[in-house]
Design a protein that fits this description.
The complex is a heterodimer. By secondary structure, chain A is of the alpha/beta class. Chain A folds into 3 domains: 81-155 and 363-471 and 505-518, Rossmann fold; 173-358 and 578-590, Dimethylsulfoxide Reductase, domain 2; 610-744, Barwin-like endoglucanases (Beta Barrel), CATH 2.40.40. Chain A is built from 29 helices and 28 strands. Chain A starts with 8 loop residues before the first strand and ends with a strand. In chain A, 62% of the residues are buried. The mean pLDDT of chain A is 97. Chain B is of the alpha+beta class. Chain B has a single domain (4-109), classed as Alpha-Beta Plaits (2-Layer Sandwich). In chain B, the strands form 2 sheets. A 3-stranded antiparallel beta sheet of chain B has the order 4-1-5. Chain B has a two-stranded antiparallel ribbon with strand order 2-3. In chain B, strand 2 (36-47) and strand 3 (50-59) form a beta hairpin. Chain B starts with a strand and ends with a strand. The chains are: A alpha/beta, B alpha+beta.
């Protein structure tokens, strides 16, 4: 590879080539893989992985490789539209942006005057660029304190961020995969992790939030060994030193069992524990309740494996852990997270080369998005839904409490909700809500609703009065901030390569609406000015500098707790109540939960609800990712549907024989809350008592209008997931540990 | 003159389908046709603690080893985009030597 600096754009064989970094829409979290976009006659003709990108190094997944199909898809909505028939009737009329803004501004002002600004709720989705912008859209443009991530228990990423903020006082803990350095794995100050625990996560497919998944494969080739905690045999599990096939929802017991081994056998880092951890003696006492024999009974993981894996992890230096959605989608998840962070801390793997890196709790755009709430008066901010009931959630996340939001929608108490803004969320598809049928009925009653997206979705079809067309990352200027600023491995430029129709980016939409409704909060003339203002104070670069650089890496400082860089007062230690890592959490205690991690049975399981389990004998786990689909995206992309044609439920072959189910049969998955239909795939990579059903499915090829809504209720596994079965602190829905029965459906 | 081939290290092929789609786009192949296609083995339990779950991409009769790209000094589309960096293009003698040197889970295709 040449070391000469590459330009960000050039002409080649009649194409204009643009180097850029990816972030959904469409396709992914803020991982920012590098692409070269080839445009001719304002058409994106082909995509090539950018070999000069230090993280992805020319590699691309099938979501980016099929980007031209997405960008120029005939079903994309590329002009603003207003509804002209009944809601859900699929009758729309193209309008101009000016007309759209006029309608929206009038309605917003009317609704604010009649019912108060708090009657407006902005709903956001998972992982898209919009995650940085829907808070400011609510706080600083619409002027409401209510922005909502609607998934029960905020069960995606937010809980892990909150737990880390409370236990470490830092941003997101990530594997040190040498992403900060241009020379990557050859960087002199970096060390290869000897062991990585992959806990409840399949990063090769999910590329979560800033981790390029195949960095794990890079490190495996260099000698890293894995411990994989997963109810399913993932590819990584098939190559792990230890695959711990945990019973879904029992992760806390497993982590406590591993802590039991490490603490009782003296395998922890005594210096680090002494100097930088608080509450070790209490934790030591607590883990005595979780001997490996008992943990085996709870988790179904053989005790020998628990002991060996714990020893292997503790003896590996450095070692790292990556934790996944299984921490969030669990009412016991705060304790899972607390126990996993404790494992990482007492083994001395925090903030060391090849261990776990930590960023600040908020930086860059992540900081701005939260600070825009200062646009609201205290009085209005105090009306934020669910903040009083769930302070542990409200403190770390500037949103409403999702479950309380549905309660308020349904009851109109303490005040009615009248307007919904669906900002890049398709929440009634099985992604961003449990009990989606209840959300559907409640949201049908809005006086006014706006949706922003790239395609017509079931959610926009069901509720929207105005549809605003979003541009893909190929069509706008922007920036990728890994981990939303909670661990900025690098900043990537999103460089506009073409314009499609009249689509606009989230930032453009915010700026245009903000200038109309609250201009003082939106002083920037264009997006470049806006991004320069975000970048300059922290990094000293302008947006044009970033455009040319494409990738801006930020060298990492290790052991910041020794040098005072983790605290605003410059004192050594961590930014927590005790100044140390809180193995005993004073905050959890203050909020009425146990200060130490503990295990609690899932709300529905063969052990907690044995009577129900007679009718619903299987454990249902959901949400594992596919290669080609980002949650509810990509269902209309032909090449992707050739690979992922239909929704798949995984069943063990022995179980399938008992049920009279064959490979490829359509089956119903059903419990006391609802049912859905998916296609059976038989695999020995899942426990005979567990089935896994895919999330995100709807069918753009099916009837668009009501009641079909693109078949959104057919394969909708979230219909089986209950409302408000969450942990004490307000986090965690049991989406990965439900119960169900399975039976053959008509074809 | 030596023939060129594709060396696959299926210890590290993760089954990501990137080769399939990169190739399909490069050759502009329609629905149902592929220039390279994944085969899957397993998962199956080999011993109490060992599992086999392997993928091997197999070039089809559409594969021309990306003549045009290679002529421009680029790697074939599949090799370039492989997420696991598990594919290599080159003269078969060189690839065979690499195959022997690694000694396990390698396969060499001359399409």
């Amino acid at each position: 590879m040449s070391t000469a600096k590459k330009p960000w754009t050039w002409e080649e064989d009649g194409y204009t080539v643009t180097r850029t970094c990816a972030w959904s829409p469409p396709g992914c979290h803020p991982v920012g893989c590098g692409l070269k976009l080839y445009v001719k006659d304002n058409r994106l003709v082909k995509v090539e992985g950018d070999p000069d990108h230090p993280i992805s190094q020319g590699r691309l997944c099938i979501r980016c490789l099929s980007l031209p199909e997405y960008v120029h898809h005939p079903q994309r909505i590329i002009y603003p539209m207003k509804r002209v028939g009944e809601r859900g009737e699929n009758k729309w009329q193209r309008i101009s942006w000016d007309e759209a803004w006029d309608i929206i501004v009038d309605k917003v002002q009317d609704i604010k005057a009649k019912y108060g600004p708090e009657s407006i709720v902005v709903y956001g989705g998972t992982g898209r660029q919009a995650c940085l912008y829907y808070y400011p859209l609510g706080f600083a443009a619409l002027g409401t304190p209510n922005v909502c991530y609607p998934l029960s228990g905020w069960s995606c990423y937010g809980p892990r961020c909150a737990i880390t903020q409370y236990v470490f006082g830092t941003g997101y803990p990530e594997i040190d995969f040498a992403g900060y350095y241009p020379d990557r794995y050859d960087h002199p100050g970096w060390k290869l992790p000897e062991c990585i625990i992959v806990w409840g996560k399949d990063p090769l497919k999910s590329n979560p939030d800033g981790l390029f998944g195949h960095a794990l494969v890079d490190m495996m080739k260099r000698g890293t060994k894995l411990i994989v905690v997963d109810p399913r045999l993932t590819w990584l599990a098939s190559r792990a030193e230890y695959w711990l096939q945990v019973r879904p929802g029992t992760d806390a017991a497993l982590a406590l069992g591993m802590l039991h081994v490490i603490i009782n056998e003296g395998l922890y880092d005594k210096d680090f524990v002494e100097n930088w951890c608080a509450g070790f003696d209490d934790l030591k006492q607590r883990v005595q309740d979780y001997p490996p024999e008992k943990v085996e009974e709870i988790t179904w993981v053989p005790k020998e494996k628990i002991v060996e894996a714990a020893r292997f992890f503790a003896r590996s230096k450095p070692a790292s852990i990556t934790w996944g959605l299984a921490v969030d989608e669990n009412p016991n998840g705060v304790q899972v997270g607390h126990a996993i962070l404790s494992l990482a801390a007492i083994t001395g793997n925090i903030d060391v080369p090849g261990g776990i890196t930590i960023g600040p709790p908020a930086a860059l755009l992540g900081k701005w998005r939260v600070e825009t709430r200062l646009e609201l008066t205290e009085e209005l901010w105090n009306k934020r839904i669910g903040a009083e009931e769930y302070p542990a959630l409200a403190n770390a996340l500037a949103t409403t409490h999702p479950d309380v939001t549905l309660d308020v929608l349904e009851t109109g108490k303490p005040y009615p909700l009248k307007m919904a803004w669906f900002n890049s969320t398709n929440l009634i598809s099985p992604t961003c809500s449990t009990a989606p049928d209840r959300w559907y009925r409640a949201l049908k009653n809005m006086e006014f609703a706006v949706a922003t997206d790239t395609f017509m979705t079931p959610t926009a079809m069901a509720f929207a009065d105005i549809f605003l067309p979003l541009s893909t990352f190929a069509e706008h200027d922007g920036i990728v901030v890994t981990h939303f600023g909670r661990n900025t491995i690098f900043i990537g430029a999103i460089n506009k390569a073409l314009q499609v129709g009249e689509c606009k980016s989230d930032v453009e939409i915010c700026l245009e609406l903000g200038k109309r409704l609250n201009p003082k909060a939106w002083p920037w003339n264009d997006v470049k000015e806006f991004f320069t203002d975000q970048l300059k104070p922290e990094l000293g670069i302008t947006f044009d500098d970033l455009k040319e650089e494409v990738v801006h890496q930020i060298p990492y400082q290790y052991k910041k707790y020794e040098t005072g860089q983790l605290r605003p007062d410059g004192e050594p230690g961590f930014m927590t109540m005790s100044g140390k890592i809180e193995l005993y959490s004073t905050l959890f205690e203050m909020w009425g939960d146990d200060p130490l991690p503990y295990f609690e049975e899932p709300p529905y399981s063969p052990y907690s609800t044995p009577e129900l389990a007679k009718e619903y004998p299987f454990i249902l786990t959901t949400g594992a990712r596919m290669w080609g689909m980002f949650h509810s995206e990509h269902r209309q992309i032909r090449t992707i549907r050739e690979i992922h044609a239909e929704p798949i439920v995984e069943i063990h072959p022995d179980t399938a024989v008992q049920l009279g189910i064959k490979e490829g049969d359509w089956v119903y998955i059903e419990n006391m809350y609802g049912k859905c239909k998916q296609k059976a795939k038989l695999t020995v990579g899942i426990h005979p008592k567990v089935v896994h059903a895919q999330h995100g499915w709807w069918f753009p090829e099916k009837q668009a209008d009501e009641p079909g809504l693109f078949g959104v209720w057919e394969a909708n596994v979230n219909l089986l997931a209950p409302h408000k079965h969450i942990g004490k602190l307000g986090f965690g829905a049991p989406l990965k540990s439900l119960i169900c029965k399975v039976y053959k459906a008509e074809a | 003159m030596s023939r060129n081939g594709l060396l696959i290290d299926y210890e590290y092929c993760t089954g990501c389908h990137s080769c399939e789609v990169a190739c399909k786009k490069e050759l502009n192949l329609p629905v149902g046709k592929w220039g390279i296609k994944l085969a899957e083995v397993g998962p199956m339990q080999v011993s109490p603690d060992r599992w086999q779950m392997d993928y091997v991409p197999i070039p089809t009769e559409f594969c021309n080893l990306c003549e045009e790209r290679v002529a421009k000094g680029e790697a074939p589309a599949c090799v370039h985009h492989c997420l696991g960096k598990a594919m290599e293009y080159g003269p078969v003698e060189e690839l065979a030597a690499k195959m022997a040197a690694k000694g396990k889970k390698m396969v060499l295709f001359v399409p």
